Amino acid sequence: MNPTVLAFETSCDETAVAVVRGTEALSNVLSSQVDLHARFGGVVPEVAARAHVESIRSLTHQALNEAGVHPADLDGIAATVGPGLVGALLVGHSFAKATAWARQLPFVGIDHMEGHLMAPRLQFDDFAPPAIALLASGGHSQIVHVRDWGDYEVLGHTIDDAAGEAFDKLARVMGLGFPGGPAMDAASDGGDPAAVAFPRALPDRPFHFSFSGLKTSVVTYINKAQKSGDLPPLADVAASIQEAIVDVLVNKTFKAVDETGARVVGGGGGVLANRRLRHRFAEEADKRGVQVALPDPVLCTDNAAMIGVAGAHWLSHGRISDWAENVDPGLALT
Ligand code: KG4
Ligand code: ZN
Fold first, then answer.
1. Whole-number pLDDT of residue 162
2. What distance in angstroms lies between residue 113's CA and the mean position of ligand 2's atoms?
3. Does residue 204 fall inside a structural domain?
């Protein structure tokens, strides 16, 4: 059974609505709030929640229209239940529950990180357990052994900052703007990733990450190089910082591939949109003859199609959330 699901994602600063049938996105629309938050240098929770309220209705109409699906054709409704900003989550989750209630449709709340984890299914039929997935976003960085859908072994995670957070903080240090990941990605164009040897943290812990020390070493390096007048070109510094983050993400992910013997490796979360990371993923997978399942960048960053594919999966397995379900800002993948 391939249920047709209307899905909502409002955990942070994107209001996103999609219609998904089974593993196929029939529509996937979003309204980004990046410009609203950019002048504050980060996401302002109250501003995010209000902006979700303003755009969710029209985006729902747009998603249904683009999919050519009438509400009467829907089999269920899904929404992100957590983790995320509580006010932001409440908008999508409440709107979804109310719509489901009014239409007498089953509703299922979806873990945002499981959404990222299932996003590759929208484009790769053979992304199936057992698999390794790297999830790296603004709030999370983890390597997951997907033993089965719903049976996730988190092999490692960050002990301080998430990879996306590191990109955002380091881009701010370099004056590149917000959000920092795409800015660092662009600034590194033509740069030499080996120009500056920034440290790679936690070499002795196979699957855990630590990114907070990188900021200190970048700030120290830039101050020193500026004083002595030998600061390399911006592209070289950006490419070297990016490499320090990408290197550990890729090496540890493929160590997990080697140790588990997984034949497919995927990923999700905004950091997986990074061009250097995608290139390194392809190289490492080629060496081992394993398949890479990295969805297009728009499906790596926050979107509702990923919530729809997870929603369709769980609804077709009979999972339905209680009407009393509440959002859970601190939800963790288990
Ligand atoms: O998954 P996501 O869209 O939202 C969260 O759930 O957090 O991830 C956002 C994060 C931000 O930290 C952003 O800087 C980072 O993903 N990001 C990138 C790139 N695009 C987005 N990091 C590196 N390179 C990119 N191209
Ligand atoms: Zn996300």
1. 97
2. 7
3. yes
Number of domains in the chain: 2
330 in any annotated domain: no
- Asked whether the CA dihedral 267, 273, 279, 280 is positive or negative, the reply is negative
pLDDT value at 240 more than 90: yes
- Find the 41 Cα to ligand 1 centroid distance in Å: 14
Q: Quick one: pLDDT at residue 38? A: 85
- Range of 61's domain? 4-118+299-316
Q: Measured from the CA of 162, which atom of ligand 1 is nearest?
A: 12
Domain assignment of residue 321, yes or no:
no
Neighbours of 190 (CB within 10 A): 10
* Ligand closest in space to the Cα of 269: 1
Is-above-0.90 flag for pTM? yes
What local confidence, expressed as pLDDT, does residue 112 receive?
A: 98
User: The domain that contains 252 carries what CATH number?
Assistant: 3.30.420.40
- Ligand 1 atom nearest the C-alpha of 164 is 12
d(CA 160, CA 153): 20
CA of 201 to the centre of ligand 2 (A): 24
